[in-house]
């Protein structure tokens, strides 16, 4: 399992739709010096989790933490924290649904993911393989 490295970037965002793009940009920029990290996957997964924080959080803010690559294999961990107490639940999205695919995307694109309850809500942590 990936050991969390030092934090490359951390962002605090208001739970409002425009913050999703800000969080995505921060994460993509954090990993831009590491060409083996797929910036498209980072952008997609951070967008999904930030959108969930905006839509389902009980808090005013959410946070994104981007950890440095593992020295062992180049993998990275990203955390999204929000004030919501309900853990995400998988559901089957219909073909025309605009949402409901976030956990499915994590399952397909992330090497590992998990949720954690925190003192202020919850976090969702995912690991991406380092393809170097």
From TrEMBL:
Stored PANTHER family: ANTI-SIGMA-F FACTOR RSBW (PTHR35526:SF3), ANTI-SIGMA-F FACTOR RSBW-RELATED (PTHR35526)
Protein name in UniProt: ATP-binding protein
Domain of life (superkingdom): Bacteria
Entries under CDD domains matching the protein: HATPase_RsbW-like
GO MF annotation terms: ATP binding
Pfam family, one: HATPase_c_2
Ranges of residues in domain Histidine kinase/HSP90-like ATPase: 16-127
Organism expressing this protein natively: Streptomyces johnsoniae
Database matches in Gene3D superfamilies: Histidine kinase-like ATPase, C-terminal domain (3.30.565.10)
UniProt keyword list: ATP-binding, Kinase, Nucleotide-binding, Serine/threonine-protein kinase, Transferase
């Amino acid at each position: 399992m990936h050991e969390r490295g030092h934090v490359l970037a951390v962002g605090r965002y208001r739970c409002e739709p425009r913050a999703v793009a800000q969080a995505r940009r921060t994460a993509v920029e954090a990993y831009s010096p590491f060409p083996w990290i797929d910036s498209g996957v980072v952008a997609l997964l951070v967008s999904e989790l930030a959108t969930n924080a905006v839509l389902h959080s009980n808090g005013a803010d959410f946070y994104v933490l981007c950890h440095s690559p593992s020295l062992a294999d180049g993998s990275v961990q990203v955390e999204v924290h929000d004030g919501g107490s309900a853990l995400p639940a998988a559901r089957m999205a219909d073909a025309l649904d605009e949402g409901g695919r976030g956990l499915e995307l994590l399952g397909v694109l992330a090497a590992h993911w998990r949720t954690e309850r925190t003192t202020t809500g919850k976090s969702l942590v995912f690991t991406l393989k380092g393809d170097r």
